[in-house]
Write a structure and sequence with these properties.
- By secondary structure, the chain is of the alpha+beta class.
- Helix content is about 55%, strand content about 20%.
- The chain has nine helices and ten strands.
- The protein has helices at about 1-25, 35-40, 45-50, 130-140, 145-160, 165-170, 170-190, 205-260, 265-280; strands at about 25-30, 65-70, 75, 85, 90-95, 100-110, 115-125, 190-205, 285-290, 300.
- A three-stranded antiparallel sheet has the order 3-2-5.
- The N and C termini lie far apart (about 150 Å).
Length: about 300
């Protein structure tokens, strides 16, 4: 009696275990395969209860599954978040991230005036959810590595070649918008959406840097030479004006002498003597000795 009961209990346990395994193989969610066995308690009855409980699967957001069927291949429709059923051993889900992802594209290209430039482009991209089976079947799970670098390098080379080195720096926002528009148009052919495209790095080669420095030095030299020429011109004009003034003064003196005789010269001599006397009077180291009777004039003594 006891042996019969144990055999029946073993048969029930085996049946429940096989059923739980089949349910585990049939259920998956949109983010990861449903790990029922790893989360199940030791009892087989608990496994059945866990598998049959609605909403038991842990679900990560921002993912979709592409189903590979052994008979029909990649199914045309992807499945989103939540718990889903599959045919065991015939259908295999591949989980793909459909959230915005970051990608940096770097390229070395030439400008309109044949200057080499290193430019880096930042792209925030995500696939179209309804086109995910097509993207997966055509380009695989690493579709971003296959599409974005080739498209980005081609767009960068074609747009940068329309500007010279100076324009590329002066119109950086315009260039970034043009690149973003072209990238969106090209990536739409591959069913990729670009949320943001912007230039993060722009650097010219050492030849261009040296050319810019030499140009600045040449401009400074030109400004310096221009200043020297202007100063020479001003000095020449000042010399001319001074010569004209001296000539006019000499003419006026000659006219005065012609009209008044030597009286004008005597007046000038007296004024000069007055200025000399005032200067000597202000100095404490000079003493004037008046002339002696019968002498020719006074004597100036420099006292230290």
């Amino acid at each position: 009696m006891a042996a019969r009961f144990l055999n029946r209990l073993a048969a029930i346990g085996t049946t429940v275990g096989i059923g739980g395994f089949c349910i585990q193989e049939c259920i998956y969610d949109g983010a990861c395969l449903l790990p029922l066995a790893s989360r199940a308690p030791p009892s087989s009855v608990a496994v059945v209860w866990q598998a049959g409980t609605p909403g038991e699967a842990c679900m990560d957001g921002g993912h979709r599954a592409v189903i590979f069927d052994r008979k029909d291949g990649i199914l045309d429709k992807s499945v989103g978040e939540g718990t889903h059923f599959k045919i065991p051993f015939f259908q295999y889900p591949t989980i793909l991230d459909v959230r915005s992802n970051y990608r940096l594209i770097s390229s070395r290209t030439g400008t309109k005036d044949l200057q080499n430039v290193n430019i880096s482009l930042r792209c925030l991209y995500r696939p179209k959810g309804d086109k995910l089976p097509h993207i997966y079947s055509e380009y695989g799970p690493d579709y971003a590595d296959r599409i974005l670098p080739s498209v980005g390098n081609e767009v960068l080379k074609s747009i940068v070649a329309q500007y010279d080195a100076v324009e590329l720096l002066a119109h950086r926002d315009q260039v970034s918008q043009q690149i973003s528009k072209e990238m969106n148009e090209r990536c739409s052919n591959f069913f990729l959406l670009l949320d943001d495209v912007s230039i993060t790095h722009l650097e010219y080669g050492p030849e261009f840097t040296r050319a810019v420095e030499q140009k600045q030095v040449a401009q400074q030299d030109a400004e310096r030479q221009k200043f020297v020429v202007m100063r020479s011109e001003q000095e020449r004009q000042a010399a001319v004006i001074k010569a004209e003034g001296e000539s006019e003064a000499a003419r006026l003196v000659s006219d005065a002498v012609a009209k008044s005789g030597s009286g004008f010269i005597e007046v000038q001599r007296i004024d000069a003597a007055r200025e000399i006397a005032e200067t000597l009077a202000k100095s404490r180291n000079i003493t004037y000795l008046p002339n002696q009777e019968g002498g020719n004039g006074g004597v100036l003594l420099g006292l230290q």
